[in-house]
Each structure stands twice: as structure tokens, then as C-alpha cells.
Amino acid sequence: MEELTRPHPGARPGEIGIDLPSGVRLWVDSYVNEKALARVLRALRDIS
């Protein structure tokens, strides 16, 4: 498995904002783990 190396800690390449209908706003960058993000989105959907 190829390991991703993050740039300088302050940099957020490919930043994406996600506004959910519940009013929750998430910000992720291009290094987000897709499976982890899917779990978070499911959990937020289930509690709203």
C-alpha cells in the first residue's frame, strides 16, 4: 500500500466543504480516507 505524505501542516490540498441538511458542516482534504468519511457521514445521518 502506498503511503501518502502530507505537505506542511498548515496546507490543506484539495479542501472540500460538505454541508449536510442537518446544518453540520464538514471540511476534508484530499488525504481523507474514503471509508472513514463514509462511516462518519452514515453516523451523522443516523443521529439526525
Note the topology:
Blueprint: E1 16-19, E2 25-28, H1 34-47
Antiparallel strand pairs: 1-2
**Which class of secondary structure composition applies to the elements?**
alpha+beta
Given as residue ranges, the uncertain stretches (5+ residues, pLDDT < 50) are none
Shape: flat
Q: Summarize the helix and strand pattern as letters.
A: EEH
Helix content: 25-40%
From the alpha carbons, calculate the radius of gyration and give it in angstroms: 13 Å
* Strand content range: 15-25%
Provide the residue-averaged pLDDT: 82
Number of helices: 1
Amino- and carboxy-terminal Cα gap: 35 Å
Strand order, sheet with most strands: 1-2
| Strands, count | 2
Largest sheet: 2 strands, antiparallel
Provide a short characterization of the protein structure:
The protein has 48 residues and is of the alpha+beta class. It has one helix spanning 34-47, and strands at residues 16-19, 25-28. It has a domain at 16-47.
Written description of the protein model:
By secondary structure, this protein is of the alpha+beta class. The chain has a domain at 16-47. The protein is built from 1 helix and 2 strands, in the order ββα. It has one helix at residues 34-47, and strands at residues 16-19, 25-28. The chain has a two-stranded antiparallel ribbon. The protein starts with 15 loop residues before the first strand and ends with a helix. The relative contact order is 0.20. The model has no long low-confidence stretch (mean pLDDT 82).
Task: For the structure shown, list the relevant keywords.
single chain, 48 residues, alpha+beta, two-stranded antiparallel ribbon, 2 strands, 29% helix, flat
